[in-house]
Write a structure and sequence with these properties.
Layout (H helix, E strand, L loop, with lengths): L2 E5 L4 H12 L3 E6 L2 H13 L4 E6 L5 H14 L5 E4 L16 H28 L3 E5 L12 H23 L5 E6 L19 H12 L9 E3 L8
Helix pairs in contact: 1-6, 3-4, 4-5
């Protein structure tokens, strides 16, 4: 059974990924902290004929809450075979690096790295049992001259390091889990204030491309895959 938990699946890239994975036969578990938005997303997905198993409350800043979420997944959805770490916050993208508040860096890292890592760690035993996969939605660790908000990029660089270390250890220990990272590229979502510039893609396009990648029957262990790289527009 192809069962996936997608964090932040009530909107944006998470919702687009849930839609297109669902249309391709995956059973969807919505990971979201906001109940109302999650219910709206579930109803929209079900209206498309997608098999939504339910919602799990995911609050990445609350480690105790994550422990409860992992317990719920193990009890209700023992067939879980993939975790998509999509949920995240942007941090303050309006300031340059030297003026970034320490509190903003801490908050962004708490969500995008520490919370994401802890949820991943908690679900590894179940994913190992089911020979599952972990997919991280992220950005390159290399600094782009065109877009480089410090808090966000730093938090995702840590997440990329997590992926690389776990991939190596899974291989060394013959752990039957595949982990890789995906950079969707510039996408119009509320994370960036619904920015739409040349080179940006919409949620529908990115969600479809994500599902195509996940369903390609290839092993991507330890890979960093860019769907649409950030490029300078003339």
């Amino acid at each position: 059974m192809k069962t996936v938990l997608i964090t932040g699946a009530n909107k944006g890239i998470g919702w687009g990924t849930a839609k297109h994975l669902g249309l391709s036969g995956w059973k969807i578990i919505i990971g979201a902290r906001h109940q109302g938005r999650a219910e709206t997303a579930i109803n929209e997905l079900k209206s498309l004929g997608i098999d939504v198993l339910g919602r799990v409350h995911i609050e990445l800043t609350d480690l105790t809450s994550l422990e409860q979420a992992a317990k719920e997944v193990n009890e209700k959805y023992p067939s879980l075979s993939m975790l998509v770490n999509n949920a995240g916050i942007p941090g303050d993208m309006s300031v340059d690096g030297q003026h970034t508040e320490l509190s903003d860096i801490k908050k962004t890292v708490d969500v995008n790295f520490i919370g994401t890592f802890y949820l991943t760690r908690l679900l590894i035993p179940l994913l190992e049992k089911n020979s599952g996969r972990i997919v991280n939605v992220t950005v390159p660790s290399e600094i782009s001259p065109y877009w480089h908000p410090l808090a966000y990029v730093a938090s995702k660089a840590a997440q990329n390091a997590m992926m690389g270390v776990l991939a190596m250890e899974f291989q060394q220990n013959n752990t039957p889990i595949e982990i890789f990272s995906v950079h969707p590229g510039p996408t119009t979502t509320d994370l960036n204030g619904n920015m739409s510039l040349p080179g940006f893609h919409d949620i529908e396009t990115v969600g479809s491309k994500m599902a195509e990648l996940i369903n390609d029957n290839k092993n991507h262990q330890g890979e960093f895959i860019e769907l649409y790289p950030i490029v300078k527009e003339d």
